[in-house]
UniProtKB/TrEMBL annotation:
The gene is hel308. ATP binds at residue 28. HAMAP family: Helicase_Hel308 (MF_00442). It catalyses: Couples ATP hydrolysis with the unwinding of duplex DNA by translocating in the 3'-5' direction; ATP + H2O = ADP + phosphate + H(+). Gene3D superfamilies: 1.10.3380.30, P-loop containing nucleotide triphosphate hydrolases. This is ATP-dependent DNA helicase Hel308.
Length: 647
């Protein structure tokens, strides 16, 4: 099947041909045969680099109305926005932030790219453009099984189908164990294949050799580690150097930020390339310790990539790698689920990570996604993925083969039944006007992936219990017995409506109410920027920060010295360590508002510049939510607005 055979405008056909796309890949042809250009619903469960984006574009370009492309990450949203903007005659919008805004101007675009959270928020705030959608594409739909994003994604999809009846849904997934479950839930056809445009062989390294699943082998000349050396790191260095010497690029995955930077320093000793101009570009974007270390590595053609790196540096690294200026990226596993940075060889050095309690094996799907980054169409003759065994004995090698090489990925399982998630979405559907009784809440939940997977589970009592929680939090009113009366009327209180529209969880809303009321009763002279920041930093929606042993005593003294400004007494908290971390973050943000430099904050508080960037954004959002909550409970606390304006 050729591009010229598709029902696309001539300029679009010419655009694809100019990009070297003339004949469709087998999965793309299968999608067309399944009716993706005729408004039919589709789930495409195919490997990375097998043409999922083209399938999405076919659906959106032929839908006969506005299209929405849902992504899990902001970085991926930006990448897709740039990709779709190249389509001739197509207007594209993007929405990833400002959860309390409806962004009505998005209705003017042919395609809107947005995160699932932004779409959920737009639904809650009554955005009318949602009702006009003709096509919804969901990227990485297997994230239905993730604890954080999964419940939001499935409730959003269930609600979208109510708001835009008859909408075409196209779901793009990695290869998972149960794609037919997702297809059945969405009433969609399934295109499932392991076909790839570039062949991929996966193998295990041990004792100087890689044995691949196609029965080929690769001898690796790894330097023996020194007295303080690491055999796995030296083997990784040898595997990377071999790929680069052969004209390829490499991705190396390790378990932590520290390991990513350490491996990058080791690889920069080779060196693999000469990139002084690129190193200068890194330095110009920021001269923190992290930025300096990154620039030093980049000069030798190596980069590290993790959440502690500021977003501008991550984007520079990703673009330089795609442009083949960089030879290798040392990354934590989050890169595998993010932007498109394929390479000829992928090396997975660490297959376990620390969970807070123990070292646990990575999920099979996560490892397969890392491996799937190997092999780029039109650039690489093949792709290789190499897993490093923890030892050279046969048992260690056999375990990796059984666990990852020959094993299939896990099934996608809904996480909506988690109490916190259900509490959030029950409030949302009531506050948004989609439900006015427990019966109507249950009716909407019946359209979720959870209900599809668990038809025998009685949600009535669970929803009743969640409603009781929300009534106690002053966010819902319920007629009848909340635990037993499924037909009883439900309504959001003014507070519940604000909490839902501000896109904070009910738990965070309750903490804000508690903090605001306490602050309102304090001596006005003690209500300072630290008061506002302690309230918002000590919420479930605020990602905390690390408190090192060496700074614990200093932070305790700081908290003691400012105790009168805090809404929580030091001897009256369920988790003192967690609260002290919140105080640390409040102190960091206060210093930022007072003009302290990023470089000084990073050095003084052992926080990555990327972490600081992300925390400041969340603080700004939560200060806005706290200000809205204060208005509802009639608390005169302008401090939230004042601090927000200083960010």
């Amino acid at each position: 099947m050729h591009v010229r055979d598709l029902p696309l405008p001539a300029p679009v056909q010419e655009h694809y041909e100019s990009e070297g796309i003339e004949e469709l890949y087998p999965p793309q042809a299968a999608a067309v045969e399944a009716g993706v250009t005729e408004g039919e619903r589709l789930v495409a469960a195919i490997p990375t680099a097998s043409g999922k984006t083209f399938i999405a574009e076919l659906a959106m370009l032929t839908a006969g109305g506005p299209a929405l492309y849902i992504v899990p990450l902001r970085a991926l949203a930006r990448e897709k926005y740039e990709t779709f903007s190249k389509l001739p005659g197509v207007s594209v919008g993007i929405s990833t932030g400002d959860f309390d805004a409806t962004d009505e101007d998005l209705a003017e675009n042919d395609i809107v790219v947005a995160t699932a959270e932004k779409v959920d928020s737009a639904i809650r705030t009554g955005a009318s453009w949602v009702e006009t959608l003709a096509c919804v594409v969901v990227d990485e739909v297997h994230l239905l099984g993730s604890d954080g994003r999964g419940p939001t994604l499935e409730v959003t999809l269930a609600t979208l189908q109510r708001r835009a009846p008859g909408v075409q849904i196209v779901a793009l997934s990695a290869t998972v164990d149960n794609p037919e479950d997702i297809a059945d839930w969405l009433d969609a056809d399934l295109v499932e294949t392991t076909w790839r445009p570039v062949s991929l062989r996966t193998g295990v390294y041990a004792d100087g050799d890689v044995a691949f699943d196609d029965e080929s082998t690769l001898a690796v000349d790894a330097e023996p580690p020194g007295p303080d050396g690491d055999g796995a790191t030296e083997a990784t260095a040898a595997l990377v150097a071999d790929a680069v010497d052969g004209g390829g690029q490499c991705l190396a995955f390790v378990r932590s930020r520290r390991e990513a930077e350490s491996l990058a320093r080791r690889l920069a000793m080779e060196p693999l390339a000469d990139c002084p101009e690129l190193a200068d570009a890194v330095s110009e974007l920021g001269r923190t310790e992290t930025g300096t270390r990154l620039a030093d590595a980049v000069e030798s053609g190596v980069a590290f990539h993790h959440a502690g790196v500021r977003s501008s540096h991550r984007a520079l690294v990703e673009n330089a790698f795609r442009e083949r200026k960089l030879k290798v990226i040392c990354a934590t596993p989050t890169l595998a689920a993010g932007v498109n940075v394929p390479a000829r060889r992928v090396v997975v050095r660490d297959l376990k990570r620390y969970t807070g309690e123990e070292m646990a094996w990575l999920p099979v799907l996560e490892v397969h996604q890392m491996c799937g980054r190997a092999g780029r169409p039109h650039l690489d003759p093949y792709g290789e993925a190499v897993l490093l065994a923890e030892g050279d004995d046969d048992a260690a090698v056999a375990e990796l083969w059984d666990r990852y090489v020959t094993a299939g990925p896990e099934a996608v399982e809904s996480k909506l039944a988690a109490r916190d998630a259900l509490r959030t979405h029950v409030l949302s559907v009531v506050a948004s006007g989609f439900a006015d009784s427990q019966e109507s809440v249950l009716d909407l939940l019946d359209a979720t992936f959870f209900a599809h997977q668990s038809p025998d589970v009685d949600l009535t009592r669970l929803v009743g219990s969640v409603v009781e929680d929300l009534v106690e939090m002053e966010m819902l009113t319920a007629g009848g017995d909340a635990a037993d009366d499924s037909a009883g009327a439900l309504a959001a209180t003014e507070l519940g409506g604000v909490v839902s529209r501000q896109y904070v969880t009910p738990e965070t809303g309750a903490r804000l109410v508690e903090g605001v009321r306490t602050a309102a009763g304090m001596d006005p002279g003690n209500v300072t920027a630290l008061t506002a920041l302690e309230i918002v930093c000590d919420t479930p929606d605020m990602h905390g920060t690390y408190l090192g042993n060496r700074e614990r005593a200093a932070m305790y003294r700081f908290a003691s010295g400012h105790a009168a400004e805090f809404t929580t007494a030091m001897n009256d908290t369920d988790d003192f360590e967690e609260w002290l971390c919140a105080v640390k973050l409040a102190r960091i943000v206060r210093e930022w508002t007072e003009g302290e430099s990023v470089e000084a904050i990073v050095e003084n508080y052992r926080i990555g510049p990327g972490d600081l960037e992300a925390r400041l954004e969340r603080v700004e959002w939560l200060l806005g939510a706290a200000d809205a909550v204060a208005a509802v409970v009639d608390a005169d606390l302008p401090v939230f607005r004042e601090v927000r304006e200083q960010l």
